[in-house]
Structures are given as C-alpha cells and as structure tokens.
Amino acid sequence: MKTQTETFRGYGKLFELSAQTAVECRFPEVETALSVNACARLAGAEAGNGEVRYYGRVLFSIVYEDAERRVCRAEKGVEFTAVAKDDRVFPAASAHVVLAVENISVRREGASTYVTALLGADAALFGEQSFDYLAGGDLVMKREPVRVLTAHLVSGTAETEDDFEVGAIGDILQHNETVHLTGVACETGSVAIEGEVFVGVLAMKGEELVSFERLVPFRIEIPSDASDPACRAEASVTVAEAQIRAESDEEKGRCALFVTLTLRADACLYEEVAVDAVTDAFSRENRVALAYSDVICEGAGETVRLTERVSGRAALSSPIDFSDTLQAVTLQRAEANLVRGEGGMRAEGVALATLLVRGSDGSRRGVEISLPFSVAVQAERASVSVLACGMSARQKEEGTIDAEVTLKFALCERVRLGARLVASAEAGEAVKESDSAISVYIPRAGDGLWELAKRLNKSPEEVTASNPDLEFPIREGQRVIIYRKKSV
Predict the structure, then answer these.
(1) What are the C-alpha distances in Å from 488 to residues 63, 483, 484, 485?
(2) How far apart are CA 332 and CA 74, in angstroms?
(3) d(CA 180, CA 340)
(4) Binning pLDDT at 50, 70 and 90, where does residue 338 land?
(5) Tens digits of per-residue pLDDT, 186-228?
(6) What are the percentages of helix, strand and coil residues in the chain, rounded to 5?
(7) In terms of Cα–Cα distance, which of 160, 268, 179 is closest to 222?
(8) 106 Cβ neighbours under 8 A, 6+ residues apart
(9) For residues 173 and 63, is the Cβ–Cβ distance under 8 A?
(10) Which of 204, 256, 383, 419 is the most core-located residue (most Cβ within 10 A)?
C-alpha cells in the first residue's frame, strides 16, 4: 500500500506563562507618603533552556510631606532582572513579555521609606509549528480543507503630542500614564493600531493639591509585508517615555500643559492558511491502522469595546470624617476579569485610586479607595483590558466615600482552531470481500455519506452510483443496495 505524506511548517504561538517579581526602592527623609506610583519599562526578554529572562527598569515616584509639612516629590529608577521558569521554553523560541505593576506597598523603617512594586509578567512564546499529514496514496480518503493560523511578529515606535490648558498651578508633582487600545486593524502592507493614553497629573495650586487628566489619542502604523485586510491582529502598546512641561501665563492666570509621549507597539498578525489534508481514510483490500496529528492554533478575533459609568460606596484604606477636606483624586486605574454568571458573561473587577485629603490640623494624607464593579459584556472567550478615568469622590455621609468612575473596556476575542489529521497509514490484514452479487444494508439513522461508505468498505462514489436516491443524513428506515459485478 503506497501513501504520500507531507509536512506543514508554520510559525505561531506555542504557549503562555506568567511570573511575578518584586522590585524595591528606598526613599530617605520621607515623613508622610501621600501618593506613590511605579511604572515598569521592559528593556528586553530572552528565551533559554527552561526559562524566560526579562529585564528592565522600574520608575518610582513619591509625593510626600516633610517634617515641616511641605509637599515634596522624589523620583528614582531601579534596574531589575527576573526569570519565568517553564520546562517547555527553549532557546529558539521568541518571547513576547508584557509587564504590569500589580501592587505597590509602602513601609517605614527608621528614617527611610521603602516602596515595593510587585511586577506581573505575561510571556507568550512563539516558534515554529509543524505537523505531518497524509496527502495521497492507495486509499479511499476523506479530504477536507483544514484552517491553520500562522503568526507574524512586528514592532514599532511612535511619538505623539498634546497640550491643554488648566488653571494657574505651581509645581507638577506626579504624573501617570495608562494605554487603552481602541482598534487594531490589518491593512495592506501595514498594521494600524489606534488608542488613547490616559494622562493623570498631580500638581500644587497654592497650598492645595489638584489633579488633572487628559486622554491623548494616538495612531501607530507598523510596516509588514505579511499584513492583509483578511488577517487578524492583537497588539500591546507601552509608554516608553513621558514628558510633561508646564508654561504659565500670569496675566491670564492660566497654565498650559504640554505632553510628549514615546510609545512602543508590539503586534502579532494571524494569517489563516487552508491545508488540503486527509481527516479519515480506509482501504478496500486491507484493514488500516491510522496515526493522527492533532493541530491546535490560537489567534485573535474581533475586539468589542464598551464604556460604562459606574458608581457606589468605595472601600477605604484608612478612616475619614467631616473634618477632612477632599482635595484630589489621583493614580486612577482598574483591573477586571471575565466571569460567567447566571445572566451571561460579566466583567468583574475593581477601580482604584488615591484620594488626597487635608485634615483640620493642616496635615495631608493619602487614602486608597477601591470601587468594585460588575458589568454585563457580550464576550465568551476573550482577554479583557479596562481603563478608569473621570473618577470623582464625595463624602455625603461622615466616614464614607461615594465614588463614580468611567470605565472603558476592550475585549479581544480569543480564537482557537483545532483539527485531527491523518499523519500516516499502515496496512493490516486483508479484508474478505463478499461474493454475493447484491447486498442490502440497513444503515444507521443520521449517518453521512462518508460514514456509510466506510462501513460498507466502498468509496462514496460507488455508494451514490448504486443508490442515487439516497438522502443524507440517513433517515430511519432507508435501505442501501450494493451491486457487485460477477465475471463468468
């Protein structure tokens, strides 16, 4: 029995892994920490034997009161190197790592304040994907076009600028940036990534703390010969550098803020390829032992966007009362996961921020507030990202904070294609052919043409030639007649 086997070779996502690492920074002479932020910048990632090594820099910023109750600021950068271990990692793979600051903790030791940032790293490993499949031979074969996804990795940088006016302010104390993607589209010869960067600014206005926010739109086009409108893509965009400059107009009592952002984009294009493969086979003369290749591909689908305004009673990290004056809400952020409930899929998570208050004695402090949310979404299997902006806080009842925030969701559908292909066939014992001229079979209800032909050990063409009136799937009570030519 002759068979023909071919090998498909492509490039795709092999698997994903995650890891955590803690990075610490020391700030001396900090009396009372008001607002603390940390931002992780990835410098590179390498795949080795059983591990992914990634490294970069964490930028820490802290706003604090000194011993004389003056509001001060400090910034420091800390280099880090970390490892995500997994036995499946090998040196030829490409590692795409996305960093996120999952938690920030502050502790006081002696005259110094220590800030620790817990970094979460999500690593996607890409590499060659290959499989063998039966392409021809002396068999009756069921051929079907099998869809396979191949990946193409591209990256690029872009710079975007914006400016806006605010009231007269003094020093800029702190700023934070969060990227929100609004669209990733494959065009002919390039990948277009659109979104907006939430920029939050904390500043002094006389003796008061004030906060401002701005959504800065951006568009990044990355050239790619593999890009085509029929492709799908997913992307991540990070702020590689942020510069904020203020110019005051004393006559008008106004101030203009100029924002310059350097963005880095990493995208993965998924191209769909059809493989004309054999999914089942048999022989008229011999029993056949089939070996299979299981093909599983993952990619990105459509992105659903949703904006919701949520409100409610917020949880507080420390108590407040009516003697406290609410000054500013800063460091807005949110996190969410998809959860299946009785009414369908929901995005559940929490919106977070630092509420800066001033007590009756004139001292300032920061109170962490958290507002849980649950929003109905139209998504089954998707990755979810959420941007929090426009958060407000009010103390309607003493000791409680009612918060309101706008949430912008982006849900990227996860596409998973799977198929089982015949990789090879080995002939076994001979099949005894019936010597009767005519045979009548009672098939199973619901059988298709291929299932029936395989059971009868005839090609689909032979079955339909003998039974032109058969309808598929088979109905209850149908009969199948097989004619065999006899030589005299």
Answers:
(1) 103, 16, 13, 10
(2) 20
(3) 24
(4) very high
(5) 999 999 999 999 999 999 988 899 999 999 999 999 999 999 9
(6) 5, 75, 20
(7) 268
(8) 33, 36, 113, 114, 115, 116
(9) yes
(10) 419
pLDDT (0 to 100) of residue 487:
56
pLDDT digits (tens, 9 = 90+) for 444-486: 888 888 988 888 888 889 888 888 888 888 888 788 877 766 5
The answer to whether residues 314 and 354 touch, using CB atoms and an 8 Å cutoff, is no
- Please report, as a single letter, which amino acid is at residue 49: N
What is the distance between the alpha carbons of residues 182 and 303, in angstroms, rounded to a whole number? 9
DSSP-derived secondary structure letter, 465? H
How far from chain centre, in Å, is Cα 480?
53
User: What is the CA 465 to chain-centroid distance, rounded?
Assistant: 52
**Rounded distance, CA 404 to CA 387, Å?**
14
Which structure tokens are listed for 389?
Answer: 């902006």
Q: Are 52 and 100 in contact (CB under 8 A)?
A: no
In DSSP terms, 126 is beta-bridged to 13, 94
Q: What does the alpha-carbon distance between residue 422 and residue 141 come to, in Å, rounded to a whole number?
A: 10
Dihedral angle at the C-alpha atoms of 332, 256, 245, 183, nearest 10 degrees?
50
Query: Under 8 Å CB-to-CB from 257, ≥6 apart: which residues?
Result: 163, 164, 165, 166, 172, 201, 212, 214, 244, 245, 246
- The rounded distance, in Å, linking the Cα atoms of 481 and 483 is 7
**Facing residues of 78 across strands?**
58
Q: What is the 3-state secondary structure (H, E, C) of 105-151?
A: EEEEECCEEEEEEEEEEEEEEEEEEEEEEEEEECCEEEEEEEEEEEE
Token pair recorded at residue 435: 């010597």
For 137: left if phi > 0, alpha if psi spans -120 to 50, otherwise beta; the answer is: left
Cα–Cα distance measured from residue 470 to residue 478, given in angstroms and rounded to the nearest whole number: 8
DSSP state letters, 434-464: P--SEEEE-PPTT--HHHHHHHHTS-HHHHH
- Report yes or no: 150 and 12 within 8 Å, Cβ to Cβ: yes
Write the burial class of residue 175 (CB in 10 Å: 0-12 exposed, 13-18 middle, 19+ buried): buried
Cβ contacts of residue 50 below 8 Å, gap of 6+?
85, 86, 87, 89
For the entire predicted model, the pTM comes to 0.86
Average pLDDT over residues 141-156: 92
